[in-house]
Design brief:
Shape: globular
CATH class: Alpha Beta
Order of helices and strands: EHHEHHEHEHE
Number of strands: 5
Low-confidence stretches: none
Number of helices: 6
Structural class: alpha/beta
Helix content: 25-40%
Distance between the termini: 25 Å
Radius of gyration: 14 Å
Number of domains: 1
CATH superfamily: DsrEFH-like
Length: 124
């Protein structure tokens, strides 16, 4: 099996539901452990997780913060990108973003990944 490439769309996850929110990062960790190139695309209100402090305050039932999951995935090379339109709508102006944030990529970028035969996609 070749390493492959995986793009994950996180749009329905939120800091208010940390147990559900952890899922895209668990799958990203699994793919990265298999040497896949992985990107997580944050869209809609999920972009709030990229704001400094939001994911850190959100804790799973086991007590682990969502940001801890995010740090682990980033340490394995997973890139975090945000939809610029969602960022404009949902992020607080002037607030810092987490250091793991890689940049902006809109809907066209994710659709491009979905249409590219070298990439696989998951949606959360």
């Amino acid at each position: 099996m070749s390493a492959g490439k995986l793009a994950i769309l996180a749009w329905s996850v939120s800091a208010e539901q940390p147990d559900l929110c952890a899922a895209p990062f668990v799958y990203a960790l699994a793919a990265a452990a298999l040497d896949c190139e992985v990107e997580i695309h944050f869209a809609g209100p999920a972009v709030k997780l990229l704001e400094s402090g939001v994911a850190e305050r959100s804790r799973t039932t086991g007590g682990k913060s969502v940001h801890a999951f995010m740090r682990e995935t980033a340490q394995l090379g997973v890139r975090f990108v945000a939809c610029a339109m969602a960022a404009q709508q949902h992020l607080t102006a002037g607030r810092d973003l987490i250091p793991e944030f890689s940049g902006y990529a809109g809907a066209t970028a994710f659709v491009g990944r979905a249409l590219d035969a070298d990439w696989r996609t998951l949606v959360f």
